[in-house]
What does this fold into?
Amino acid sequence: MRYARIMPIAKAGRFELHYRDSGGSGPPLVFLHGFPLSGSMWAPQIEGLGSRWRVLAPDLPGFGGSPLPGEPSAWRMDDYAEAVRAFLSHLGLERAVVVGLSMGGYVAFSLLRQAPSTVSALVLVDTRAEADSEEARRGREAQQEEVRASGTDALARRLVERILAPSRLEDEEMVEEVLSLMKQPAEGYLAALEAMKRRPDSTPDLGRIQVPTLVVVGEEDVLTPPPLARAMAEAIPGARLAVLPGAGHLANLEDVGAFHDALTPFLEELGAPPGFR
Ligand code: MLT
It folds into this structure.
């Protein structure tokens, strides 16, 4: 008989965060998911990296099993960062390697502003440092109206066409998998859209990042394309860049092998953080 895996819950302050913990013996890696997904998007990393490292993948508030405390309209990127800090402290971790994909990268930038000492190294995947343009903000507002009026299904169907590389759209199994990951509560969508449209520009912070950083981007990412990733890597002292051929915005799912090949040497070089046995 197979038993469903019970997901642990971190009750920390105003947050109740559901998460996956690979239980690996190595240093902790906290994977922050993109929009509108959940920690489930990191299943291949739990599988492929989770015995060498302790892969932790929380559902950010409003996604997966984690409720959203408060009103979506009041939600900001700093609230997600506060949730990640509460999560680390619940687990007794002073710091971790933070891997953020797209919106997860925006959360990582907030975390670096709030509590830089919690980030021992950084992996920025298919993300950008810039704030939204006026046009992007208006687009988010239209998406919020749509979600309030008619739910998330039509929006998810449109998003999937941009989130995957054009060539991957022929892969029905992958499209269905991503659509099922995008089945998230409407209030999670609303809060994240609010937080994203109000997020500050993080480009002035890039030159101040002092931890080892790897920037990863899918060569066919149309949402946060390679030139943005290259500029971001050039602005962060000592950062490296990995461009994954054929992958789109969900590089970790679209080419698991290439993604792990990019992360593994970077993580190996970091070794164990001070104080870690
Ligand atoms: C994401 O994948 O998190 C989104 O594409 C981020 C965004 O819409 O800016």
About this structure: DSSP finds eleven helices and eight strands in the chain. Residues 160 and 176 are 9 Å apart (CA to CA). Strands lie at 9-12, 15-21, 28-32, 54-58, 96-101, 119-125, 213-218, 240-244. The mean pLDDT is 95.
